Amino acid sequence: MYIDIDVHHGDGVEEAFYVSHRVMTVSFHKFGDFFPGTGDITDIGASKGKYYCINVPLNDGIDDDNFINLFRPIITKCIEVYRPGAIVLQCGADSLTGDRLGKFNLSIKGHASCIQFVKSFNIPLLILGGGGYTIRNVSRCWAYETAVVLDKHKEISNYIPLNDYYDYYAPDFLLHLIPNNNIINLNTQEHLYKIKTRILDNLQYLQHAPGVQFAYVPPDCFGDDEDEDEQQQLIVEWEGGGLSTPNAAAAAANAANAGAAAAANAAAAPIATLTHQQQIQQLRSPPPGGRIRRKDYLADFEDLPDRDQKLPI
């Protein structure tokens, strides 16, 4: 489960898992005329990922109380329904008051309360940083939140100790920020209630957490490692012949032993199933008139259209 409290929408992670139920994504962000412009409440995922994508779009000026009153019931319901085996919490500091880009009005304690709440579920938790464009406040925030993770936040002083960057914390030289009372909270109670109700209603469509053992896992398209003592998939290119794999060559050899007519065609591309050591020797000393090379799996992807070229996919 991925939770994002950065002021920007967590569009990258959402897109990566938009059609999958393997990861539930939850993003609390400023929505509207603001980068990246995505993350509407109606964006709920698609295909197998439908309803596993949660977007909480907010307006400028949201404060601690409003944010926490949304965060706790939504996250509680998500964990109750999805039952994640691990949680990734992205703690972008640009949702703090006073950020150069973000327009929220959260205090450091309000921001850190999200960590405390998620941590209380005792689920394996990975905590990441994120955005933040008033650097001194980013340092304040993550210093305090590191203390929260270590359960030392009650011991940390509000007075910043002397250090090489002490002057950056002027004029008060304090750890915690005071929310700006002049910022107007554009999130009305009616607006917040509608958001919470809509999201909790959507979560009711999830009857159970997905079973990982029943989920399709794509095969490894890059093959085995060269150092593994297993047979490597080879392609043999002979003069006058085409391409042949060990399985095809073995079938041709069987046909030849049986006296089948296919033996004549198989003779054009003779190959035997080789052990790992024999393959290495063959690679060092190619047979006369031909060469052995490893299949280039990356070449399979060279013809994929580039999204930047705006080609149809």
From TrEMBL:
<dbReference type="Pfam" id="PF00850">
    <property type="entry name" value="Hist_deacetyl"/>
</dbReference>
<protein>
    <submittedName>
        <fullName>Histone deacetylase, putative</fullName>
    </submittedName>
</protein>
<dbReference type="GO" id="GO:0040029">
    <property type="term" value="P:epigenetic regulation of gene expression"/>
</dbReference>
<feature type="domain" description="Histone deacetylase">
    <location>
        <begin position="1"/>
        <end position="148"/>
    </location>
</feature>
<dbReference type="GO" id="GO:0005634">
    <property type="term" value="C:nucleus"/>
</dbReference>
<feature type="compositionally biased region" description="Basic and acidic residues">
    <location>
        <begin position="304"/>
        <end position="313"/>
    </location>
</feature>
<dbReference type="InterPro" id="IPR003084">
    <property type="entry name" value="HDAC_I/II"/>
</dbReference>
<dbReference type="InterPro" id="IPR037138">
    <property type="entry name" value="His_deacetylse_dom_sf"/>
</dbReference>
<dbReference type="InterPro" id="IPR023801">
    <property type="entry name" value="His_deacetylse_dom"/>
</dbReference>
<dbReference type="GO" id="GO:0004407">
    <property type="term" value="F:histone deacetylase activity"/>
</dbReference>
<feature type="region of interest" description="Disordered">
    <location>
        <begin position="277"/>
        <end position="313"/>
    </location>
</feature>
<dbReference type="InterPro" id="IPR023696">
    <property type="entry name" value="Ureohydrolase_dom_sf"/>
</dbReference>
